[in-house]
Each structure stands twice: as C-alpha cells, then as structure tokens.
Write a structure and sequence with these properties.
about 270 residues, alpha/beta, 12 helices, about 50% helix
Length: about 270
C-alpha cells in the first residue's frame, strides 16, 4: 500500500508522537441511523485516532450479546451496504483525516460481490476492512481486490493462532494487527496476565505494523493496563452498550464523548 494512504499517514503520526492508539468501535445504524455520523464526529473530538465501524450482520459469531443486539437493531432499521457507505460519505464531508475501518463478516460482502463492495467503499471514504471470518489462507484474492481500490485488509490474531498463521499474518500485514485478547466473544472482561503481555510482545517483535488489542477493554483502567504492552487499544462492547440508551443523536454524541474522554486521558498518561 502507498505510504500516502490516510491510514498509513495516521499510523506514522502515532508512531512519531509515541502515542498509544485509541480505536473505538460502533455499529453502523445504532442507536439510530441519524446518530451514527454525529457519534463518529464526537468520538474524533474525544480523542479517537481510528474508528472501526461495524457492519450489521444477522449471525455475528465472534460478538457477544451487546454487539449482537446492536446488529439486530440496525438490521431492523434497514442498514445495509449502501446505507453504511452513505454514512461514511457524510462523515467525510467534515472529516477528511480520520481513518474508517469497516469491521464485519464475509456474507454481506459476498452477496454484493467483492469488486462492487470495494469500489463503493473506497468511493465513500472507507480506508480498510477487517473481516472476522476470512481465513488468512484465503485472503490473498480479497486483499488484491481491496488494494486495487486503495483499501487495506486488517488481520485478526488470537491466543489460538498458531505459528504458521502468525507468520502468514505478519507477512501480509497491512495497517495494524488486531489481537483478540482472549478466546471467545466480544464483551468479556480483559484477563490481565503475564502470558498476554509476552504474547503481544512477541507479536510486536515479529510484525511490521502496530499491534492493537481488543476484547474486554471497557474503561480507562483496563485501557491503560493494556496499553502498557500494546501499541493501541480497541474498545467496542462497552461503548455500544453506553450508546444503546440514547434517544436522540445529541444524546448519543454526548454519551460517546463522556465515555471516550477518560480513556484517551488514561492512554496519554502511559
């Protein structure tokens, strides 16, 4: 990928500033379609470096109840690929710098076709995709289609990732590596352990890109603890849960700001 891409520029700036990355996740269309773009802007103002925007799916196997329910609510509202691309396009009218990573599953992409999806995602202002159920052994063709449109493919690693898959992920790493802190689904508590610290340290030593840790990070304390050994943190379920009770876009934006600011402050203290 070109070093001039939006995501690569942001990653270079983070490295130069020795700043721990803060990557919040929200589900597109939840708590409402009208709230999504205001929440994205609020998260940036509160200190987000990159945003992962969840693509609603009817069978999100890697996600816990909180994100499953948010996907269900978004699907009821009719959120699909064109709707998500419209949200990103609207966000780009005011923000040309913050990278947007679409996080989701294979089915919504394959039903539209990879070429169509990549073309429209790039045109909307998406920077990368993270596809939970795309095996690394089968990712080459997907990566080629995405890269042709200037999009990057983010890889997932987990405690169960074996050495061969780790080597494959590092060899083809783009953007950053998302390390899942535990086996299971999103929304569990982060298990702090020496094994986790050593595992992330080993991956960072082998990887040509930053390593961010997600799953189980829910507040400033857990984010700060995680950032001591990772390049950045990804926070999803806890934020999605906070947003779920918002009745208006304004309430959602206020809730997003209140949730993220303490985490940003904690990371800046690492």
């Amino acid at each position: 990928m070109s070093a001039g891409s939006r995501l690569d520029r942001r990653l270079a700036a983070l490295a130069a500033a020795e700043r721990k990355a803060l990557v919040p996740f929200i589900t597109a269309g939840d708590p409402s379609c009208e709230a999504t773009v205001p929440v994205l802007h609020a998260l940036v103002q509160a200190g987000a470096d990159i945003i992962e925007l969840g693509v609603p799916f009817s069978d999100p196997m890697a996600d816990g109840v909180v994100i499953q329910k948010s996907s269900e609510r978004a699907l009821v509202r009719g959120v699909n690929a064109p709707a998500i691309f419209a949200m990103v396009s609207e966000f780009r009218q005011r923000d040309a710098d913050t990278p947007i990573v679409l996080m989701g599953y294979l089915n919504p992409i394959e039903r539209r076709g990879w070429a169509w999806y990549a073309e429209h995602a790039a045109a909307a202002g998406v920077d990368a995709l993270l596809i939970v159920d795309l095996p690394p052994e089968e990712s080459a063709s997907a990566r080629a289609v995405l890269n042709a449109q200037g999009l990057q493919l983010i890889s997932l690693l987990a405690p169960t990732t074996d050495d061969s898959r780790l080597a494959l992920a590092c060899a083809h790493a783009q953007g950053y590596l998302y390390y899942v802190s535990m086996a299971g689904v999103t929304g569990k508590d982060l298990a702090q352990s020496g094994d986790l610290t050593l595992r992330v340290g080993a991956i960072r030593a082998a990887a040509p890109v930053p390593v961010y840790v997600g799953f189980g990070i829910k507040d400033a304390a857990s984010a700060k603890a995680c950032a001591a050994y990772a390049d950045g943190v990804i926070v999803g379920s806890a934020l999605v849960s906070v947003l779920a009770d918002s009745d208006t876009p304004e309430q959602a934006a206020t809730a997003a700001t209140a949730f993220l600011q303490p985490i940003r402050a904690a990371l800046d203290g690492v």
